[in-house]
Amino acid sequence: MNTEKAIRTYGKNYRIVLKQGGFTAQEQKMDSFESRLREMYASENFRKHNVYPTTDATYIYAVMAMCLEIKSFGYSDKDTIEIVNKGFEKRRNFFKRIIAVINLLPNSFVIARKWNISDHEKRVKDGSITYDYFKVSRDKVEYHISKCMYVEMFETYGIRGLCKIFCMTDEFAYAGLPKHVQFIRHSDLSDGPACFDEVIRR
Predict the structure, then answer these.
(1) What is the mean pLDDT of residues 46-63?
(2) What phi and psi values does residue 199 have, to the nearest 5 degrees?
């Protein structure tokens, strides 16, 4: 990994966060973020976490660094998540356009089911997620997760609750597929004992 390149890349996202949030002393805050992220990338924690092919630890650590910076200004978890998300609106809008196209297809649930099956296989293979069970039928996918490396990474830095910024990704994705897919999240690991989801054909 080219550490300095990653810091420059995600620094652009953090600069958007600062501008959108109307923060003062932005250059000083940029320096603080870059120093924090550089230190995190050089840590033993990063080496331990950067071993799962299905998780992009470089990206996750950048988001964690942003969360830690914003939290240090006195913001709540809820506000921190909202503020940091502003730095990735362009990224989300790209996926939103893809999801909107899939939503128009009559087989959008089949696509969602195949995605879940494929993701499950990859996660089990690399050990990044521990499933208590994963059930698939013609009209439903249901799973229960007791361990997730996304949550573990955030927990390492004492900000487990802020992992909801990644947990929300599924809710965001399925919200764009209302024609044929219903998504029910009973709980997630950021603030609960398990991630328990149902993906149902409408």
Answers:
(1) 96
(2) -115, 115
Q: Which residues are CB-contacts of 141 (< 8 A; sequence separation ≥ 6)? A: 112, 113, 116, 117, 134, 135, 198, 199
Q: Are 53 and 143 in contact (CB under 8 A)?
A: no
Phi/psi at 30 (5° precision): -65, -45
Q: Give the confidence band of 96 by pLDDT, cuts at 50, 70, 90.
A: confident
* Contacts (Cβ under 8 Å, ≥6 apart) of 75: 83
Asked if 34 and 15 touch (Cβ cutoff 8 Å), the reply is: no
- Please report the pLDDT score of residue 8 as a whole number: 95
Q: Does the pLDDT at position 14 exceed 80? A: yes
Cα angle value 50/56/61 (rounded, 5°): 75
